[in-house]
Design goal:
Oligomer: single chain
Radius of gyration: 21 Å
Number of helices: 15
Strand content: under 5%
Strand order of the largest sheet: 1-2
Number of strands: 6
Order of helices and strands: HHEEHHHHHEEHEEHHHHHHH
Mean pLDDT: 78
Helix content: over 70%
Structural class: mainly alpha
Distance between the termini: 47 Å
Number of domains: 1
């Protein structure tokens, strides 16, 4: 139980760190006219091309035929981006977790949903990042070793996804749903337990092993042990924060990068929320150095994964990626402002509910996949009913949360304007 709690805290801190990155990128784009113009120039040609070939398969390769383009699916992508942005901005974590499940719930094949989500992250990273502000805190050797591993991880993850899809598209969808169900279920139930505990004893709700954004107060025992292992070339880092700096074996960092790269290509948003806890809790890197290195790894890992592992095989739905980017920019802005007029305990509750809604949505699709693959014997009406209930529950939670945030935003717009002034 104690180990599970530590893993949950690490992943929660990672989700918070990824949300902070997402907000920083989004606000950087929103507050820059040139970047907004660039976004418009990216969206318009893609929409024109999609309209011109609306009856054709999206994704370049007819053999795969992953999806059809329609006006409705583009509007749905904006809504998905808006919902993810509201969750990220208002809750401060968790928005990225619902994108792939939401796309799959909207009818997009799993492999295309992952590739599109990854490309959306890459597009946001290259448009929104201001690397020069953070480079002073980046350890070049640490970044290089990590990127060596993450690059290899993207090719392994991409090979797994493509292999499963070529064998049977249903097998690919089932695998993605299983991965998301496992991670969202673990995070969601722990988050719900935290919310219920905080509701009963709000005075203790802020207790944790470290601050909400900086990780543990001291180097963890695991990190200390790993830093003593002499496995080939040693990397020195954090010289500005510790006299003489700290050291860790390059192969250990590369192994961590391998895991992140694989998760990124298997889940889309999977890599981003793992990097922060891995660097801080496992490698013992300071949060300042981690932030800068994380910016670089997201750009390269998402870029290599989305282009080399998905785009070249026709598994990126470009118009949906741009729609999600557009929606998330608006959602994050509104969500971030709304946090000023809502109670923190409510935010924690919605975080747990939104994650669990994604879990229910993915697990509700599994009986149908098992039956279609011949692993399970159930009536067609039953499996369709389970999937329908899972879909309706998921969209009900997402819509209710969106309506609640917009209500809080517009009903308190006077207070928000005065606070901004």
């Amino acid at each position: 139980m104690g180990v599970c709690r530590e893993v949950y805290e690490m992943l929660k801190q990672g989700a918070i760190a990824h949300a902070k990155w997402d907000m920083e990128m989004s606000l950087s784009i929103l507050h820059n006219r040139k970047k907004m113009l660039l976004l418009a120039l990216m969206i318009v040609p893609i929409l024109v091309i999609n309209y011109a070939f609306a009856s054709d398969f999206i994704g370049s390769k007819h053999a795969y035929g992953p999806a059809f383009y329609s006006d409705t699916i583009f509007l749905v992508s904006i809504g998905i981006g808006l919902a993810a942005g509201l969750i990220t901005g208002c809750i401060g974590a968790g928005g990225g977790f619902i994108i792939t499940p939401a796309l799959m719930a909207a009818g997009v094949k799993g492999i295309l949903a992952v590739g599109t989500d990854m490309f959306h992250i890459f597009a946001k990273a290259i448009m929104g990042t201001a690397v020069h502000k953070k480079l002073g805190n980046v350890s070049a050797k640490l970044a290089v070793w990590f990127l060596v591993g993450s690059t290899g991880g993207t090719f392994i993850g991409g090979a797994i996804q493509n292999g499963l899809y070529k064998k049977d598209p249903l097998l690919s969808d089932m695998f993605i749903s299983l991965v998301y169900a496992a991670i969202l279920g673990f995070l969601g139930f722990y988050a719900l337990f935290d919310f219920l505990s905080a509701s009963r004893a709000s005075s203790k709700s802020g207790a944790s092993g470290g601050d909400a954004h900086g990780g543990p107060a001291t180097t963890t025992g695991l990190a200390t042990k790993l830093q003593t292992l002499k496995l080939g070339p040693m990397i020195t880092f954090d010289e500005d924060f510790v006299p003489g700096g700290k050291q860790i074996a390059g192969v250990i960092v590369a192994a961590g990068g391998l895991i992140v790269g694989m998760l990124a290509t298997l889940m889309g948003a999977g890599g981003g929320f793992v990097t922060f806890p891995m660097f801080v809790y496992i490698f013992g890197v300071s949060s300042m150095t981690t932030v800068g290195t994380d910016i670089l790894q997201i750009i390269f890992t998402a870029g290599i994964g989305s282009i080399a592992q998905y785009a070249i095989y026709g598994f990126v739905f470009y118009s949906l990626a741009m729609g999600m980017l557009l929606g998330s920019l608006v959602g994050i802005q509104i969500g971030a402002l709304t946090t000023k007029v809502v109670k923190g305990i409510h935010i924690r509750g919605f975080y747990a509910i939104s994650i669990l809604a994604g879990f229910v949505n993915r697990i509700a699709t599994l009986p149908k996949k098992f039956v279609e693959l011949g692993y399970l014997n159930m009536s067609k009406d039953m499996i369709n009913g389970i999937e329908t209930v899972g879909n309706w529950l998921f969209w009900a939670v997402v819509i209710f949360f969106g309506v609640w945030v917009f209500y809080k935003f517009f009903s308190n717009i006077g207070k928000l304007r005065s606070s901004e002034a």
